[in-house]
Please model this.
Amino acid sequence: MTRNGKIALVIGVLIAIAAGLWLSELMVGGDGGPGAVSSSGKAQVGGPFTLVNDAGETVTDETFRGRYMLIYFGFTFCPDVCPTELGIMSAALDQLGEKAEKVQPLFVTIDPERDTPEVMSRYVTLFHPRLMGLTGTPEQIAGIAKAYHVFYRKAEDESSTDYTMDHSSIVFLMGPDGEYLKLFPPQTPPDKMAETIASYIE
Ligand code: NI
Model:
């Protein structure tokens, strides 16, 4: 294993631990802050957002009403975790057949500094023709990440001027009214993801 490989492994483990902590907090409800469970017993995930799509147009959560949203947070410079998950989402959509038309796949960057609409536009087409990239101001991205309890952090690389991002790797399924339905942990098999999504679509 190369030095970079080891670093990637350590980062991967840290992200897995962070995701695990996040999941456990989400499930037990936490302290009323992020991860709190509403009186209906459902975890509060999601909510209003305003972002910019990969065509440079402003979109909000209302833009996608009537469709299911399949949302993943990451960044285009991600070496392997994001491409893997976007590949899984794309394969799941293909397996859904006609039902996929009711699903809007979304890739939200947590690296808006580098991921402009143009960069996002080029990137999403590598995965699926219907995948839409969303970016925004750092404040807009911080807002949606908080609403979805997504962790991210810039990780400076001392050996270069470049940086990478640590981030949680979870796919969210939201319903036609914007309500949270389901989350998929990293490396969920595409057929399992497709089956779960299909179970929500009439
Ligand atoms: Ni990533």
User: Anything to note?
Assistant: Residues 3-201 form a domain with the Glutaredoxin fold (CATH 3.40.30.10). The chain is about 35% helix and 20% strand.
